[in-house]
Design goal:
mainly alpha, Farnesyl Diphosphate Synthase, two-stranded antiparallel ribbon, 18 helices, 2 strands, binds 3-methylbut-3-enyl trihydrogen diphosphate, binds magnesium ion, magnesium, Polyprenyl_synt, All-trans-nonaprenyl-diphosphate synthase (Geranyl-diphosphate specific)
Length: about 350
């Protein structure tokens, strides 16, 4: 992916519409192919994980079931459970603990998304209305809580160590999101501060997802650490790509509200790089625009991001982190699962949804 290849922003009226289905999103063939190969290798385990997920969320209360069924209508990429299962397969054999933990990490992820969409004022997620826009923020807060508590209720069936590891990762996610909220409107945010936020809100969960796959396949300490670092690097690359999509992606394709980083005054890597590349006067103008972003801020910023190379440079950093993730797997024996982990790391940068 390079800046020239990034999809141009669609007119606002188009971007605000959700595409009716995932098939309409038409992800590039490579993405579809990668996911198909993942399903070929671990499809049975993923299906088991989904059954565990659904069983855990069983409820006799219609008020709960309505929201749960709405959220279940569209599933995401299932990146985190895939990481747990592939890491397990790459380090040994996939077992029931992997399947359960795969469901746990996806549940924590789903909880963070339900809450994140309240924080970001986002109306569309996974091509459908977000919980707070379909119901109200109170329902979204409580349903997110419901997912969090079920995640730990389920993790407790594995062991205390898994609960601790997932608890530590979830703590880091919350700290990352809280820090990001705290830094809203800070046009002087540094790259180090940005990476600390991303390390918490995104990479902590991808790291523990891969780590637990290795742990429960009986991997030695060095291998567990390698998988953990792999998940962390992949998570950072993935979030940089997500931040690029927020600025230059197309909503109908990505399937969620975009532009919220700007409207919520959250400085992301491409904008930090732009600010630091512009001459003093223009940099000040940018800060003024970021302090009170107009409706067309996204369209106005795109040519600047391209001209200064800020976009390219953020893409390059994401690629470097994906390459670092791949390098973490050097010592693992060759296997289909390892090859898919390598391709997943590269996909995290190229993704268009
Ligand atoms: C979205 O995660 C939140 C980020 C960390 C950027 P995903 O892009 O993995 O969301 P789904 O699960 O596929 O919908
Ligand atoms: C990711 O941040 C949210 C979490 C990791 C909890 P974003 O706010 O960028 O995620 P999207 O873009 O809404 O999916
Ligand atoms: Mg968001
Ligand atoms: Mg985002």
């Amino acid at each position: 992916m390079n800046a020239a290849a990034l999809p141009p922003p669609a007119p606002t009226s188009v971007r605000r519409e959700a595409s009716p289905s995932r098939s309409a999103a038409n992800p590039s063939e490579t993405e579809a192919q990668l996911l198909a190969e993942v399903v070929e290798l671990i499809g049975g385990d993923l299906a088991a994980c989904e059954r565990i997920y659904a069983d855990e969320l069983a409820s006799a209360h219609p008020a709960v079931r309505d929201v749960r069924d709405h959220v279940a209508r569209y599933r995401g990429k299932r990146l985190r459970p895939i990481l747990t299962l592939l890491a397990g397969a790459a380090c040994g054999e996939v077992n029931d603990k992997h399947r359960t933990l795969a469901a746990v990490v996806e549940m924590v992820h789903a909880a963070t998304l339900v809450h994140d969409d309240v924080l970001d004022g986002a109306d569309v997620r996974r091509h459908v209305a977000t919980v707070h826009s379909r119901w109200n923020p109170r329902t979204a807060v409580l349903f997110g809580d419901f997912l969090f508590t079920h995640a730990f209720h389920l993790a407790a069936t594995v062991d205390a160590a898994a609960c601790r590891a997932i608890g530590a990762a979830t703590n880091a996610v919350c700290e990352g999101e809280l820090t990001q909220i705290h830094e809203r409107g800070n046009a002087d945010l540094t790259e180090a501060e940005y990476f600390a936020i991303v390390g918490g809100k995104t990479a902590a969960l991808t790291a523990v997802s891969a780590e637990l796959g290795a742990v429960h396949a009986g991997a030695d300490e060095a291998t567990v650490e390698a998988l953990r670092s792999y998940g962390e690097d992949l998570g950072v690359a993935f979030q940089i790509a997500d931040d690029l999509l927020d600025l230059v992606g197309e909503e109908g394709c990505v399937g969620k509200s975009l532009g919220s980083d700007l409207s919520e005054k959250k400085l992301t890597l491409p904008l930090i790089r732009l600010r630091d590349r512009l001459p003093e006067g223009e940099s000040q103008q940018l800060k003024t625009l970021l302090a009170d972003p107009p409706a067309d801020a996204r369209e106005r910023l795109l040519p600047l991001l391209q001209r200064t190379g800020a976009l390219e440079s953020a893409v390059a950093t994401a690629r470097e982190r994906a390459a670092a993730a791949v390098a973490r797997l050097d010592e693992l024996p060759d296997s289909d699962a390892k090859r898919l982990l390598v391709r997943l790391a590269r996909f995290s940068v190229r993704r268009t949804f």
